[in-house]
Design brief:
The chain is an alpha/beta fold and 543 residues long. It contains 16 helices and 20 strands. The structure holds 3-acetylpyridine adenine dinucleotide.
């Protein structure tokens, strides 16, 4: 380990928070209010996390804006005005900046500073944290607010370095305007990011070539300007609206009609009518059409076939339609929402290249080679996703008891208790870590729940003169088993999704998020109420 501990200028804090996205910002606010001294490190030049980095054309949230926002401050939620049903990236970033200013958060954040190492000193129960700017700090608690989708995945394509044009990754989009006018653009990937970007890039570029490995289901978002009457209704009872959402399986969607009936109980015309109504409404409500779409493959295929029919009737070219039709389980990969995605393939300046039957062979100075044929492009957009849920945490050299690296402890996949802590790493907290519902929920909802829990926990430790908290191996083993057992009752583990780590070559394949938000919240509350059961608490040394 490098010189994290014996650096000269080590400043002391109560807590270090890594990341100034929505999790880090709220963590700082809560801890500061509770009287803790906090230092936040942020690799970007500004706040916003995901919404700071993902500036690609068309970037927009899939959760409706009245729900994808903080609930902790009634004044904030009353005063902030969203303009669209689903907020676009610039608006969400403005919101993050507004929150940072409103609660005077910037003074405790070091920007353009990446945490490189964090090491726990067992003798003193202190974390020593080092950054790439040379700043070194020590703190009792280290809180990872590093985001679930923040470590960009750029596959190691042969010849990439030889490409003579510009390359972009959707998750690391430049701040300056990118103009594709008159350019031949290639885009690799057809996940949520690509599905949002493709229709917009296609309108600008001379030609857009999409390199698709796995076709994806996508449901129309039907974004509109925000409905003023709806805003009035929600704001008239915002706390109650939030409380109802909190009880939903994914922490949002209380206005979406849920149907507690199985799909095969309906006859085909009634089923299609149900799907169609939800298709017309737009958004994730499509998958709430029946209660067994994610547990029964035959039920699932009725919804899948409905979407395939929409693709077939949208596309003018039946061969392109077939290439775009997914054949896997709908919803076991993160569903996508779009605005004119499938229609885009009817444009004369858009072509689709299948890279499932023949993968991308190599990249040359002037194009992308598939099946021996070079597709000439002037620039390439990689919409190839993220090393999700563990990538950002494991990019930091984190050492716990006995200086054992987290990378080693998680060598066969992440192991946590509640997604909040991990055995062998006392006083290290993860916000929306693997083993928590996180990416299967409205992230803002999960973030607030985790931040509140961690903040209450730190207050409890201070009140009871406790120096350390650490997940026990037994509680952790039981929790990991529970997360897997819940996943195994569903169709989620059946696809090559990033939930399973399948998008990253060599990554251990473990279903990482926990399905079901309300029972999880109950469990976290019960753990705290029972004196943090499943964690070992260590008394502070007597002075
Ligand atoms: O990334 P992805 P994303 N050769 O991993 C392909 C959230 N999000 O950035 O499916 C060829 O979904 C890969 O192919 P395959 C949301 O949670 C939210 O789009 O692995 N192709 C896939 O098509 C989302 O799920 C919002 O076979 C390769 C694509 O690249 C998550 O972020 C918006 C390849 C990656 O898709 C990630 O979405 C955007 C290779 N070697 C994102 N490697 C909203 O809320 C990868 N691919 C709106």
């Amino acid at each position: 380990m490098s010189n994290v501990r014996n650096a000269d200028a080590v400043r002391r804090f109560d807590a270090v928070v890594v990341g100034a996205g929505f999790a880090g910002l709220y963590m700082l606010h809560r801890l500061r209010e509770a009287g803790f001294r906090v230092r936040v490190f942020e690799a970007g030049a500004g706040v916003g996390g995901t919404w700071y980095w993902n500036r690609y054309p068309g970037a927009r949230c899939d959760v409706e804006s009245m729900e994808y926002s903080y609930s902790f401050c009634e004044e904030l939620q009353q005063q902030w005005e969203w303009t669209e049903r689903y907020a676009g990236q610039p608006e969400i970033l403005r919101y993050a900046n507004h929150v940072a200013d409103r609660f005077d958060l910037r003074r405790d954040i070091a920007f353009d500073t990446r945490v490189t190492e964090a090491a726990f000193d067992e003798a003193t129960n202190v974390w020593h944290v080092a950054t790439d700017t040379g700043e070194r700090v020590a703190a009792a608690f280290c809180i990872m607010a590093t985001g679930c989708l923040s470590s960009a995945n750029l596959p190691n394509f042969d010849g990439l370095d030889s490409f003579s044009g510009e390359t972009y990754h959707t998750g690391r989009w430049p701040h300056a305007n990118v103009d594709f006018s008159g350019k031949r653009v290639g885009i690799v990937g057809t996940g949520s990011s690509a599905i949002q970007a493709i229709p917009i890039i296609a309108r600008q570029a001379a030609h857009l070539t999409v390199f698709q490995r796995t076709p994806n289901y996508s449901i129309p978002a039907r974004n509109t300007s925000i409905d003023a009457e709806l805003v009035r209704e929600i704001k008239a009872e915002y706390p109650a609206f939030r409380a109802r959402n909190y009880k939903m399986p994914a922490g949002f969607g209380t206005r979406i009609p849920q149907n507690d009936a199985p799909a095969l109980a309906d006859d085909p015309p009634s089923r299609d009518a149900n799907y169609d109504e939800r298709w017309q409404r737009g958004g994730f409500g499509f998958l709430s059409a029946y209660n067994d779409l994610l547990t029964n493959r035959d039920a699932n295929q009725t919804a899948a076939e409905f979407v395939r029919q929409r693709i077939r009737e949208t596309l003018k070219d039946p061969d392109v339609a077939e290439l775009l039709c997914p054949d896997n389980v709908i919803g076991c990969k993160r569903p996508c929402l779009d605005t004119g995605y499938f229609e885009t393939y009817n444009r004369p300046n858009v072509s689709l290249v299948d890279v499932r039957s023949q993968p991308i062979e190599r990249i040359t100075s002037s194009g992308i080679v598939v099946g021996g044929k070079e597709h000439a492009v002037d620039c390439i957009v990689f919409a190839t996703g993220f090393d999700a849920m563990t990538g950002a945490v494991l990019n930091i050299d984190i050492r716990g008891r006995g200086a054992v690296p987290l990378k080693e402890k998680w060598g066969a996949g992440p192991r946590t208790y509640l997604g909040l802590g991990t055995a062998g790493f006392p006083n290290l907290f993860l916000i929306s870590g693997p083993g928590s519902p996180s990416v299967l929920t409205n992230m803002l909802c999960s973030i607030e729940q985790h931040v509140n829990w961690i903040s209450d926990c730190l207050t409890h430790l201070r009140q009871h003169r406790l120096a350390a908290i650490e997940a026990t191996p037994a509680a952790q083993d039981a929790w990991v088993e529970h997360v897997n057992a819940v996943a195994d009752t569903t169709l989620y583990p059946t696809c090559n999704s990033w939930y399973l780590g399948k998008n990253i070559p060599g990554k251990p394949q473990v279903f990482m998020p926990l399905i079901g938000f309300p029972p999880y919240v109950e469990k976290c509350d019960a753990v705290a109420a029972n004196g943090y059961e499943g964690f070992e608490l260590t008394k502070a040394a007597q002075r």
